[in-house]
Amino acid sequence: MKTLAKISGASFLVFFGLEFSFAQMNPNNANPNQVQVQTQAPSQNQTPNNPSQPSVLSPSNIIDGAYKQEHNPYRRVVPPATIREADAMWQTRIWRVIDVREKINQQLYYPEQANGNRISLFQILKDGLLGGEVTAYGFDPVDLDDCYKIRMTKTEVEKNLSSIDTVQDENGNMVPVKNEVVSASVKGYMIKEDWIFEKQRSVLDPRILFLCPRIQNINKNTGKEDPNGEPISLFWIYFQDIRPIMAKTPVFNQQNDAERRTFDDIFYKRQFSSYIIQQSNVYDRAMSAYVKGLDALLEGEKIHNNIAGIEHDMWQY
To answer: Vertex 206, ends 100 and 250: CA angle to 5°?
Structure first.
C-alpha cells in the first residue's frame, strides 16, 4: 500500500508539472496583458529610445574595405636630421629630372583625375598653391640655382596654370579658348638637391631642396604636344612646405594594397627613377651646353657613379 501511494504521488506531481508547463505555453490560458506585451510587434513609426544612435544601415557605419584605414590621414612629417656645418665633410649640388612616363614613376602621375582617396602629385601641388598653403617661386631657365628670390603671387600662379589660345570655329571666326594645366599635362619634375657626407653619422645624406613641375611644349600649328620641344618649367616649390601635405596622401602600391605609402615616403626613400642634368661646376652650366641625347644620359650616370665612389672612398677597409 505504501509503495502504491508513493507511485500515485509521483504520478500526480509529474502530471501537475506537465499541465503547468502546458498552461504557460498555451496563450488561451495565459494573462491577456502578458500576451499582448510579448506578441506586440514594434510599429514602423515608433521612435527609438536613443535617436542619436546611428542605425545599422547608416552610411557612417559603412566601411569601404575589411577594416578602417586610418594610419595615413594622421601621419606626421618626420623632420630631417640636423647637420652641423662642421660635420659636412663633402657636398655637391645636383639637378635631376623625374620622367613620370617611366613605369616606376607612374605612381606620381596617376590618377589623371582625383578618384576617391587617390590623387596625383601635381593635383596636390595645385590645390596647395591655389589654397594658399604652399608658396611658388619663379623659375629662371638661365640660373637654375635661383629658386627662392622671386616669390610669385596667387594671380601669377593662376596665370602660369592656364593659357589663352585662339581657335577657328565653324563659321570661320577666331574664338579664344582657355587651356588649363591639369595632371595629365605634367610629364616630369625637376629636383634641386644637395648630397652631403656627414661625419657625425657617417652617411651620405641626400636632401631635396626644391621641386619644379614640367609640362610638355605645345606646337601652336598642330595644337598637340611637341616631343622634340623643350619642356616648360612652371615654378619652384620649397620641398619642406609640401611635406605635410604629401605625408597624408597615400600612393598606390602595385604589389600590396595593404601597404599604402605616401608621397613623402616615395621621395624620402628615393623610390623613383631620374637622370641628372647638372652638377655644381666652375662654369655654372648645365650638361645640355656640351652634351646632347644619349651622351647626356651617360654623363649623368658618370656623375652618379662618382658620387657613389666618393662615399666608398670615405671608408678604410
So the answer is: 45
| Helix (H) or strand (E) segment spanning residue 92 | strand 88-99
- The Cα 215–Cα 263 span in angstroms is 20
Helix (H) or strand (E) holding 202: none
Cis peptide before 111 (omega within 30 of 0): yes
For the chain, domain boundaries: 85-312
- Expressed in angstroms, the distance from the first to the final Cα of the chain is 111
What does each C-alpha distance from 238 to 151, 207, 212 come to in angstroms?
11, 12, 9
Share of the chain above pLDDT 70, in %: 79
- C-alpha to C-alpha distance for 60 and 47, rounded to whole angstroms: 20
- Alpha-carbon Rg for the chain in angstroms: 35
**Per-residue model confidence as pLDDT tens digits over 19-71:** 444 444 454 544 545 444 444 444 444 444 555 555 455 566 787 778 777 77
Q: Tell me which H or E stretch contains 312.
A: helix 294-313
- Whole-number average pLDDT of the chain: 81
In the chain, which stretches have pLDDT less than 50?
1-25, 27, 29-30, 32, 34-48, 55
